[in-house]
Amino acid sequence: LEQTQIISEDDRLAEVHADGTVYTTNPSVYDTWCRLNLNNFPFDSQECEVQIGSWVYTAAETQITTNQTEIKLTGGGGIYEGNSEWEVKKIRAEIRQSVDDGEAFQEVWYFVTLHRRASYYVFVLLVPTFIVTTLCIIGLFTPLDNFGNRAER
C-alpha cells in the first residue's frame, strides 16, 4: 500500500464539537494491489478487498464510520473517473471489528467489484491469432501447384 498526502499535516483541520466529538480527515491517495484470478481471462471479473483501520487506537478510543454502504459510481455526484481496461461495477463498505491481544479494533472494509473490458484483448489477441491459425491450416492443405499431383513440401 502506498500513500500520497494531498494536504500536508500542518494544513489539516479538526472539528471539535461541544459533546467532545472530534472529526478529522486524512485526504490521501492510496495505491494498493489485488490478487487476480485469471481463469476466465479476458472475460473475467474480480473482487478486491481494501481494509483501512487504526493499529494504534482501540475501538473504545475511536469510532470508525462510513456514511455510505454502496458508493455511487456514475451519474450526478459520482466520484469514479473511469479506466480503459476495467469497469468498476460496485464498491461496498462494511465496518468490522477485529480482536488482537484481547483488544478490539475497528476497520472499514471496501469491496471493489471490477469487470475487465475485453474488447481490446479480443481485437488485439484473439482475432489476429484466429486469422493466423486459419491461414496456417489452409496453407498446410493447399497444393503447391494447380496441376498434377501434390509435391512433397
TrEMBL record:
Top-level taxon of the source organism: Eukaryota
Membrane topology, record value: Multi-pass membrane protein
Annotated coiled-coil segments of the chain: none
Sorted UniProt keywords: Membrane, Transmembrane, Transmembrane helix
Residues covered by the Neurotransmitter-gated ion-channel ligand-binding domain: 7-117
Classification via InterPro entries: Neur_chan_lig-bd, Neur_chan_lig-bd_sf, Neur_channel, Neuro-gated_channel_TM_sf, Neurotransmitter_ion_chnl_CS
TM annotation in the entry: 120-141
Gene Ontology CC entries for this record: membrane
Pfam families xrefs: Neur_chan_LBD
Keyword presence, Transmembrane helix: yes
Cellular localisation: Membrane
GO molecular function: extracellular ligand-gated monoatomic ion channel activity; transmembrane signaling receptor activity
UniProt-listed PANTHER family: NEUROTRANSMITTER GATED ION CHANNEL (PTHR18945)
Name listed for the protein in its UniProt record: Neurotransmitter-gated ion-channel ligand-binding domain-containing protein
Source organism (scientific name): Pristionchus mayeri
